[in-house]
Amino acid sequence: MKQNKALYFVPYTFWLILFVIAPILLIIYQSFFNIHDDFTLENYQTYFQSGTYLKMTLNSFWYAFLITLFTLLISYPTAYLLTKTKHKQLWLLLIILPTWINLLLKAYAFIGIFSMNGTANQFLSFMGIAPQQILFTDASFLFVATYIEIPFMILPIYNALEELNPSLISASYDLGANSWQTFRRVVFPLSLTGVKSGVQAVFIPSLSLFMLTRLIGGNRVITLGTAIEQHFLVTENWGMGSTIGVFLIIAMVLTMLLTGEKKKKGAIR
Amino acid sequence: MKRLALLGGLIAAVCGVLIFANHQLNRAQGITSGNTFSLYNWGDYIDPELITKFEEETGYVVSYETFDSNEAMYTKIKQGGTNYDMAVPSEYMIERMIDENMLEELDHTQIKGLDNIDQQFLDLPFDPDNQYSIPYFWGTLGIIYNDKFVKEGEIQHWEDLWKPAFADSVMLIDGAREIMGLSLNSMGHSLNSKNDAELAAAAEKLDHLTPNVKAIVADEIKMYMIQEESSVAVTFSGEAAEMLYENEHLHYVIPNEGTNLWFDNIVIPNTAKNKEAAYAFINFMLEPENAAQNAEYIGYSTPNEEAVKLMPEEITEDEQFYPSDETMKHMEVYENLGQEYIGIYNDYFLEFKMHRK
C-alpha cells in the first residue's frame, strides 16, 4: 500500500525535474558563458559594474512593490466585505471573471480607454478638463498592473477570512474588545497567511512584467523582463540574459522566504 | 473507467473524421503533392489577384501562409517540418540564413527578367551577386507626421526630432539599430558605425531626446498615428504607406542626410519541395506588369525599374516612396555588425530607454 502511494508522486516528480529544476540549472549554467563561449564570471561582473542593470533591478523592485501595495490596499477591504455579503459565490465569480480573459486583450482594451480620444479623456472633456496624456505614464502602468493582479490578491485573503472561526470573534467581543480591537488583534493576524500568499502571487509576477511595460508604459517603464527579452531575442547574448534571470530567481526565492509561513509559529494554530 | 474509455474513443473518432474531412477538402481545392506551390510571406504582402493569375498561367495551386516577424519565420523554417517553397525575409535575416545554410543557392540560368531590377538594388553586401535572393520590395526608415499638429517643412531631418516644440509627442520604433542609427545619421556618421567614440556620442545625444519621446513601441505605431494619438513618429516606409492610406493628414519624410535602406527579398529555403514552381514564381514576379500591379496594391516601393515605368506618375513621382537619387545616395543597408557590436548597440538603447526626464 505504501509503495502504491509513492507511485502517485512519480508523474509530479518527473514534471518537477523536467520543467522546474532542469531549466533553473540550465539558466545557471548558461549564465557563466560570455558571447565568445568562454566559461567566465564576466556576466556577473557586468551586472554589478554597469549600473544600468542594478538600476533596472531597483526599478523592478520599486514598481513591483507599488503594484503589490496598491493591490493589497484595494483587495483587503474588498475581501473583508465579501465575507459579509449575502451572495458570496456571485460576487466571487464577478471578481474571478476578468482572469478568464487573455492579458493581451485586456491590455489592448486599456489602450482604447486611455488613449487621447479614449473613454477616459472623453469623460474628462465632458467634465470640462482638457484631454490629458494618460497612456504611457507611470500612473497608467500601475493602474493596469494593479487591475490585473487584484483577483490574485483577493482570493487568498478571502479564503483566509472565510476559514476564520466565528466563535473567536464572539469570544473577543465577550472579553470586552470593541470592533476595531477585534479586527486589529484577532481578525487581521489570523488573515495574515492569506495576505502573505497574496503578496507572493502578486509581487513575484510583477517583478518581470514586460508586456505591459511596452503596451501601456510605452517602454518608459523598464523592468528586468525587458532586458531578458532583449538579450534572448535581439542580441542573442543568452549568457547575460540568463544572468539577469538568475538574479530574478534569487529575488523570487527571497520573497518566498520573507513571506513564507514559519512552521513553528503556525503549529500553535 | 468505462465512461472514460468511451469519452477517449469519442474524441479519437472525432479527430479521425476531421482529418479525413481536411484531406477531402484539400483534394477538392486541387492540393495534391505534385502541383502545390507553398508561399510563406508577410500578411497581406501580395495582390491576391496575382496569385489567381499565377495559378491560371502555370497550373500550380498556391498555398499561402503568413508570418508577422522575421524571427517567427526563421524559427519555423529552422525547426523543420515545413516545406515552404518560397519565403520573403528582410535583408539582415537573409544574411543570417545564408550563414546558417538554410537557403538554396539560386540557379540564375532559370531566372528570366533579373535585368528588370534597378542595378542599385542588386549585388548588395548582404547577398553578393544575388546568389540567394531576388529583391521583392524595398523601403526606408523615416519620419511620419500629422499636418494637424506639425507644419509642413517643420520636420525634414533627424535633427528636427530634438526640437523643443515636439516635447512629449514623438513615438519611436522599438529597435536598437534604428534608433541608434538615426542618432548616428543626425551627426553625420554611418549607421553601421563601429567607432566607440561615435557610438558613445550618439548615445549621449539620444539622452537629450528623452523629453520629446512619448513612447517606444512597435507595430502599435500604425494604430496610434492613424488615431492621432501622437503627432510625430519614426517608422518604416512600408508601415507609413499603410498609415497614409488610412489618414490623409499624415505625411512621410525621408531625412536626406542618410537613413536605413531595407529590403524584403524572395528566397528559396533548403527545405523547399517544389523548386520548379519557385522559379516559375520568381519569373512571374519579375515580369514588369505583375511587379507594377503588386506595387500599386501594396503601396511599397518596387525595385523593378521596368515596372516603375508602367506605374502612374503620381505614385512614382512621390518623393515619400521613390526618393531622389541624391537622397538615395546617403542611404545605407544594415550590415551585420557581429554579436559584440549588436550587444553594444542594444546596451546603449537599453540605457536610453531607462533614461528618465
Automatic annotation (TrEMBL), chain A:
- What keyword terms does UniProt attach to this protein? Cell membrane, Membrane, Transmembrane, Transmembrane helix, Transport
So which domain of life are we looking at?
Bacteria
Q: In what way does this protein cross or attach to the membrane?
A: Multi-pass membrane protein
Mention one GO biological process in which this protein takes part, according to its record.
transmembrane transport
* Record carries keyword Transport: yes
The answer to keyword Transmembrane helix applying to this record is yes
Q: Which residues form the ABC transmembrane type-1 domain?
A: 57-259
Subcellular location per the Swiss-Prot or TrEMBL entry: Cell membrane
Note the InterPro entries from the entry: MetI-like, MetI-like_sf
Pfam families reported in the protein's UniProt record = BPD_transp_1 (PF00528)
Which GO cellular component terms are attached?
plasma membrane
Question: Which PROSITE patterns does UniProt cross-reference here?
Answer: ABC_TM1
TM spans (from-to) = 12-32, 61-83, 90-114, 134-158, 237-259
Chief location of this protein within or outside the cell: membrane
Q: Report the PANTHER family cross-referenced here.
A: INNER MEMBRANE ABC TRANSPORTER PERMEASE PROTEIN YDCU-RELATED (PTHR42929:SF1), INNER MEMBRANE ABC TRANSPORTER PERMEASE PROTEIN YDCU-RELATED-RELATED (PTHR42929)
Q: Which family does it belong to?
A: Belongs to the binding-protein-dependent transport system permease family. CysTW subfamily.
Q: What is this protein called?
A: Spermidine/putrescine transport system permease protein
Automatic annotation (TrEMBL), chain B:
Q: What is the protein's given name?
A: Spermidine/putrescine transport system substrate-binding protein
Traced from the root, the source organism's taxonomic lineage reads: Bacteria, Bacillati, Bacillota, Bacilli, Lactobacillales
Q: Locate the residues binding spermidine.
A: Y92
Q: Name the PANTHER family on file.
A: SPERMIDINE/PUTRESCINE-BINDING PERIPLASMIC PROTEIN, SPERMIDINE_PUTRESCINE-BINDING PERIPLASMIC PROTEIN
Q: Which GO terms describe its biological process?
A: polyamine transport
- Cellular component, GO, one term: periplasmic space
The superkingdom listed in its UniProt entry is Bacteria
Tell me the Gene3D superfamilies matching this sequence.
Periplasmic binding protein-like II
Could you list this entry's UniProt keywords, alphabetically sorted.
Periplasm, Signal, Transport
Which organism encodes this protein?
Pisciglobus halotolerans
**Pfam families reported in the protein's UniProt record:** SBP_bac_8
Q: Where in the cell is it found?
A: Periplasm
Q: Name one GO molecular function term.
A: polyamine binding
What CDD domains does this protein's entry cite?
PBP2_PotD_PotF_like_2
